[in-house]
């Protein structure tokens, strides 16, 4: 069965959203339109995405629905086909992965290379915004009304306060009616309109005007706080320079970095930011990668080594060949991951969303009962209880509650991206925070993944013949052992023999036909099953493995020609990374396809448990067994690790790992450091603690003022502070995560 096209994926940039209730109003409004599905609002990156069925609602109608609610909306980007994979259909293309998918073209046809709609100029100052002007205007009117109260009689002052209230509440009433028509009756604007109108009705014009002004000030503060929170994500887009020095035909000229193509050569001067992902073809220099990976120490890079867009060339002129287009460079992929991760809501956020749907109607019901029951059932003063009911309405807005989770998640994702810790959403953060065990692959994860040949043991051929045959079988393979053998053969001058039909034997090695005879380079276990090992070869294998080396057997035509021993050095921070995990009360274990003796030698040096000789399906079974004891995080980098990464509660890929591992993983470590596993868990735990604090602030303030309002201790203006003040406090608390240092031990 083939995939079925169900519509086009459309995307806009929406401005003016300050809290999650703003996003909810927009989502409800557009979902009501014919042909619209999968509507999603990313508050921090200010994006509206949806799938639009062909021949239904015009895009202009969607834009009109958003502007009708009082928000700005940017021109739609070019759309792409959205496919729905039915049961039995082919899987989506790997290019749709957040770390691989190219950015969409903008509506005018130009490419947005960082995949993020970033304003060309900084946002306008708060006092130039519509909400800022409203706050200033209502404040001046309120001040004028107080002057009238001092200089004239109470009747004139009452009219002045009523005028200030009406001017301030008019925009709110218009937005409330727009939201009502769009299917959102319970909004803070509607509650404010009812509360202000009710206060005027019971002759509390002065307090009504004060409440409207405080609400306007609160909205300005919410906007400023939300803008500050967005800056952490927005700043990533400006890491890549806008221009580059392109070398063509011996001539160097300045071009737009967004237009660079794969294969072109750029010149990077000392002090310049690197304009594209690429490989150095000439020069050697210290590269400051801290803007991209968070690594504080510069790394010396030379010919043949990779460099990232956004890194800083510190020392010497470099010639770099572009290996990734602008829309697919490291910074663009990080930003897309952060944006898409923000849209992947955490379980806690989904619960809060469901809770808020009945919370506000319940509060409205309580307010109505508070206005009617004491008056008609117990003969209490109607004016007093109407006033208290109006205050309850203002307390009922769940803005602070709804923003508490996404604000913290967005800040954590931004902080993680700046420190080379990429996570695909709030669900990953929650799962990482609950991790109790971490399973590590060995090669390329705990070790550098660049083994070297240490021993040649000829048994049926001399050393040169042994290397030549092994090189023939391994030619073209990307396995670390194959690359090590090929490097050793080249250095020894052992030319690879002619071979045909080379192929990998998953989990066992590789085979080919060399000079018309079948040959293979395989694990000792596979060689034993093939019956080519004798007593001497078995003894030598055991001795080499006891030294912590990995051994491969080279055979042709059913005869063992010799052994090749390799050693892969541990990463410099492997021991420290495991120590940090122990300090977090997390149990590490190594899962490897290598033999038991080699695994035992390495595990003993690191002080962790291990399971050896595991095929890919064996790693999956091991992860399942570990999951019975608690939450499991799997860390790996190879194709063989992909099934286990997908099976774990959280799959983490080393940043330099294969695309398959990155596709299967929930997170990635850009710096390839073992210690960053502990850093990711610390960030996740700090985020969940921040969310709990936010929920306590939001619910605690509302609970306190709910009681004091019913008792008559607090009034309307305190109720406004309980709402907008809590929202500002929650947002500011979430912003503290922007300064969190995941690598700092606590």
Can you give keywords for this protein?
746 residues, alpha+beta, Alpha-Beta Plaits, Calcium-transporting ATPase, cytoplasmic transduction domain A, Rossmann fold, seven-stranded mixed sheet, six-stranded antiparallel sheet, 48% helix, elongated
Shape: elongated
* Average pLDDT: 81
Helix content: 40-55%
Uncertain segments:
1-5, 76-122
- Strand order in space, largest sheet: 15-27-26-25-16-23-24
User: What is Rg?
Assistant: 32 Å
Relative strand content: 15-25%
Tally of DSSP β-strands: 27
Question: Count of DSSP helices?
Answer: 24
How many angstroms does the end-to-end distance come to? Answer: 53 Å
Please state the structural category: alpha+beta
CATH architectural designation of the domain at 428-447 and 570-670:
3-Layer(aba) Sandwich
CATH level-1 class of the domain at 428-447 and 570-670? Alpha Beta
Which topology of the domain at 428-447 and 570-670 does CATH recognise? Rossmann fold
How many strands, what sense, and barrel or not for the largest sheet? Answer: 7 strands, mixed
Please tell me about this protein's structure:
The longest helix is centred in the last third of the chain and has 36 residues, at about 675-710. Helix 4 packs antiparallel against helix 5 (about 190-200). The chain is an alpha+beta fold. Helix content is about 50%, strand content about 20%. Helix 21 (about 640-645) links the parallel strand 25 (about 630-635) and strand 26 (about 650-655). Among the domains are: about 5-95, 2-Layer Sandwich (Alpha-Beta Plaits), CATH 3.30.70.100; about 245-330, Calcium-transporting ATPase, cytoplasmic transduction domain A, CATH 2.70.150.10; about 430-445 and about 570-670, HAD superfamily/HAD-like (Rossmann fold); about 450-565, Calcium-transporting ATPase, cytoplasmic domain N. Mean pLDDT is about 80; it is low at about 1-5 and about 75-120. It has a 7-stranded mixed sheet, with helices on both faces.
């Amino acid at each position: 069965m083939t995939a079925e096209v169900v519509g086009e994926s459309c995307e806009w940039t929406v401005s003016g959203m300050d809290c999650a209730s703003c996003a909810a109003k927009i989502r409800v409004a557009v979902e009501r339109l014919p042909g619209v599905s999968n509507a999603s609002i990313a508050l921090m990156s200010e994006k509206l995405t949806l799938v639009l069925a062909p021949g239904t609602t015009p895009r202009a109608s969607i834009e009109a629905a958003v502007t009708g609610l009082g928000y700005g909306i940017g021109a739609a980007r070019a759309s792409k086909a959205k496919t729905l994979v039915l049961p039995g259909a082919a899987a989506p293309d790997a290019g749709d992965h957040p770390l691989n998918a190219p950015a969409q073209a903008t509506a005018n046809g130009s490419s947005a290379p960082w995949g993020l709609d970033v304003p060309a100029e900084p946002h306008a100052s708060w006092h130039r915004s519509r909400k800022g002007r409203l706050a200033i205007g209502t404040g001046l009117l309120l001040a004028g009304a107080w002057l009238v109260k001092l200089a004239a009689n109470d009747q004139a002052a009452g009219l002045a306060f009523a005028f200030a209230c009406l001017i301030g509440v008019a925009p709110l009433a218009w937005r409330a009616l727009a939201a009502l028509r769009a299917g959102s009756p319970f909004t803070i604007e509607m509650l404010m309109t009812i509360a202000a109108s009710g206060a005027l009705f019971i002759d509390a014009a002065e307090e009504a005007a004060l409440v409207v002004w405080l609400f306007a000030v609160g909205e300005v503060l919410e906007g400023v706080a939300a803008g500050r929170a967005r800056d952490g994500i927005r700043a990533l887009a400006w890491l890549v320079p806008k221009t580059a020095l392109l070398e063509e035909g011996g001539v160097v000229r300045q071009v737009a970095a967004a237009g660079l193509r794969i294969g072109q050569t750029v010149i990077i001067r000392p002090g310049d930011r690197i304009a594209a992902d690429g490989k150095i073809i000439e020069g050697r220099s210290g590269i400051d990668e801290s803007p991209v990976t968070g690594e504080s120490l510069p790394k010396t890079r030379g010919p043949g080594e990779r460099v990232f867009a956004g890194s800083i060339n510190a020392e010497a002129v470099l010639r770099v060949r572009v290996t990734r287009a602008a829309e697919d460079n490291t910074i663009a992929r990080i930003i897309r991951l952060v944006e898409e991760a923000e849209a992947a809501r955490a379980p806690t956020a989904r619960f809060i969303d469901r809770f808020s749907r009945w919370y506000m109607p319940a509060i409205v019901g309580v307010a109505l009962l508070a206005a009617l029951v004491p008056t008609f059932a117990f003969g209490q003063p109607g004016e007093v209880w109407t006033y208290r009911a109006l205050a309850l309405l203002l307390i009922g807005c769940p803005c602070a509650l709804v923003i508490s989770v996404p604000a913290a998640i967005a800040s954590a994702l931004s902080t993680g991206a700046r420190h080379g810790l990429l996570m695909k959403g709030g669900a990953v953060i929650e799962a990482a925070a609950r991790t109790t065990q971490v399973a590590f692959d060995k090669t390329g994860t705990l070790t550098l993944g660049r083994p070297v040949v240490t021993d040649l043991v000829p048994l049926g051929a001399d050393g040169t013949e042994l290397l030549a045959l092994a090189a023939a079988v391994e030619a073209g393979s990307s396995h670390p052992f194959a690359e090590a053998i090929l490097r050793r053969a080249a250095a020894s001058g052992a030319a690879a023999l002619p071979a045909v039909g080379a192929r990998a034997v998953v989990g066992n090695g590789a085979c080919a036909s060399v000079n018309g005879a079948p040959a293979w380079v395989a694990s000792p276990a596979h060689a034993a099953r093939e019956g080519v090992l004798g007593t001497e070869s078995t003894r030598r294998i055991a001795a080499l493995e006891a030294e912590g080396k990995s051994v491969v057997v080279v055979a042709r035509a059913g005869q063992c020609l010799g052994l090749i021993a390799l050693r892969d050095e541990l990463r410099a921070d492997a021991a420290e990374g495991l120590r940090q995990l122990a300090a977090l009360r997390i149990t590490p274990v190594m899962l490897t396809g290598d033999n038991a003796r080699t695994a035992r030698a390495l595990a003993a040096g690191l002080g962790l448990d291990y399971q050896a000789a595991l095929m890919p399906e064996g790693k999956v079974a091991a992860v399942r067994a570990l999951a019975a004891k608690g939450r499991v995080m799997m860390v790996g980098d190879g194709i063989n690790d992909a099934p286990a990464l997908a099976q774990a509660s959280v799959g983490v890929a080393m940043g330099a790992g294969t695309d398959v591992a990155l596709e299967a993983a929930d997170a990635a470590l850009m710096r390839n450091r073992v210690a960053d596993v502990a850093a990711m868990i610390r960030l996740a735990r700090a985020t969940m603690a921040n969310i709990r604090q936010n929920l306590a602030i939001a619910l605690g303030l509302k609970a306190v003022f709910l009681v004091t309002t019913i008792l008559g201790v607090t009034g309307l203006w305190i109720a406004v502070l309980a709402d907008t003040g809590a929202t500002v406090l929650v947002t500011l608390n979430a912003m503290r995560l922007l300064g969190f240092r995941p690598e700092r031990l606590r």
